[in-house]
Amino acid sequence: ARDLPVVRFGDSDSLRVGEWVLAIGNPLDLRSTVTAGIISAKGRQIDIMQDRYSIESFLQTDAAINPGNSGGALVNLRGEVIGVNTAIATETGYNAGFGFAIPINLARKIMSDLIEKGKVERGYLGISMQSVDGKKARALGLDRPQGVFVEEVLRDSPADKSGLKTKDVILTVNGQSVNKSNQLQAMIARKSPGQNVRLEIVRKRKPMTVDVRLGVRQETDVQVAKKTARHSFENLGIAVEDITTSWASDTGYIGPAGALVVGVERYSPVEESGLREGDVIVEINDRIIDGKESFQQALDEQEPGSVAIFTVRRFNRKFHFFVEISAD
Description:
Helices cover about 20% and strands about 35% of the residues.
């Protein structure tokens, strides 16, 4: 097909709180529905992503968003797409005035990477961080809450090689102010490995500039296991692997052998029971679990519709979770 109409992309970075927007989608099977509202907040983190490296920096809007809106466009009054409707915060499952959209600038980076490279490549700095509140600002000698506090610099990371240090405060990235940790994470993620960024920082109450050449984040043993796990039990929403010595060393695990949980699907029976990634399953209904094979065997013994007791080691403490075995 040729000459199809296309939408224009806007600039989600230039949006201002209070700006009018329209949400387009098919909520509740009502096709091509348009609702209106404003941008209520930017850079909102709502903790719906389980991966600690996932990017959460949503646009918040009070335009009515309901099931069926996800994937639809959030547009400004010029008809430019400035976000992709994604989620709502609600206790009923329906619109309560708190809708969230992925900023289009982040979505465009993902789209371009997939088209050009077949995968998403994100810049990597190599720090853990915290936002700076009033108490931290006083301790750090700042005149107001601003910037992002560097909690840890990972060894041999781009940040480490550039000279960034623990207790530094990052104020800007390439001249753009940054005041929340997820905002900094999103800004770096929109860069590509190999790009250079200039950070304005405060170190021991003195302003400095640090230039960093971004790298590629190396996958951990657990992340690799999630991609290659042979046992992914879809009905339960769980993926497990054998414990590796490197994982045990990295996490300080000193418990018995078991099946390491490397993936938990959102809203699955396993998640609802309370299990999460990083748990080690050591028993199912008094049967000893020493790896993924015995985990599979123990599950095969369960009756569909029954409830199994999972004994789990978490932070070297013992917990019990009650998991309903799907009849599907």
